[in-house]
Amino acid sequence: MILIFEGILILALWHSIDNAHRIVVGAPAPCDAYCFNELIPLHNTIATLNHRLSECETMQSVNASARLDKIDKELKTHKVRLLANTQGISRNRKNLSDQGKLIEKYKRKLRKPFVQIGSGYYYIEDETTMTWFGAVRACLRYGSHLITLNNQEELDAIIPRLTKNMYWTDVNNLSVDELVSITTGLKAEFLKWAKGEPNGGSKEECVSIVSPKYEMHDYPCRTKNFFICEAYEE
Ligand SMILES: [Ca+2]
Ligand SMILES: [Ca+2]
């Protein structure tokens, strides 16, 4: 009897085990814990990658921001330099313009109205008086020389154009005893003294022509007189 019961118990247990086995094999895979444990490393890796990605994005953002700030500063610096250069160019243009106006002014001043009289060209200064030295320099500035009267014909051509009492010529005896032309450095080739002239000695060492006949007088060089400039022969 006991043997029968044990057999039945064994059969029941076997059946239970078999059923249990069949229940386990046929059931939906109950691997949550297992899978979870298996996925933990992958999850951690993904988390690490996400963290690094976030860091990279932050760093890129910071770097990009820093680069933009640097570019912005450089642009501002270039803008300031460009503005300074533009202002410098404007100043230079104004200076050039002012210098150009000054040059034109001097050109106008130098472009005295030389007129042809006989075979030569002359500028008769009958507005401003100068010493003989000043007259020499003025004619040089005009690209000419104080008049060299070469002959009576030249003097006769000039006389009708003269309106003042006295004009300087280029004749003097400042450095030597004889009367020379400062233009040529040679002895004056034409002298036509007025009556009683020359009479000044060492006090009158420059020669002028005096109305009404515009004959020659020796006269103090530092006296201010009108003068005549003669263009160089071309
Ligand atoms: Ca002459
Ligand atoms: Ca005299």
TrEMBL record:
Task: Report the PROSITE patterns cross-referenced here.
Answer: C_TYPE_LECTIN_2
* UniProt superkingdom: Eukaryota
The record's InterPro entries line, in alphabetical order, gives: C-type_lectin-like, C-type_lectin-like/link_sf, C-type_lectin/snaclec_domain, CTDL_fold
The record, for Gene3D superfamilies, names: Mannose-Binding Protein A, subunit A
Which keywords does this chain's UniProt record carry?
A: Signal
In the UniProt record, the signal sequence range is 1-20
Q: Which residues form the C-type lectin domain?
A: 117-230
Q: What is this protein called?
A: Accessory gland protein Acp29AB-like
Organism whose genome encodes this protein: Drosophila albomicans (Fruit fly)
Supply the source organism's classification: Eukaryota, Metazoa, Ecdysozoa, Arthropoda, Hexapoda
Q: Give the encoding gene's name.
A: LOC117564596
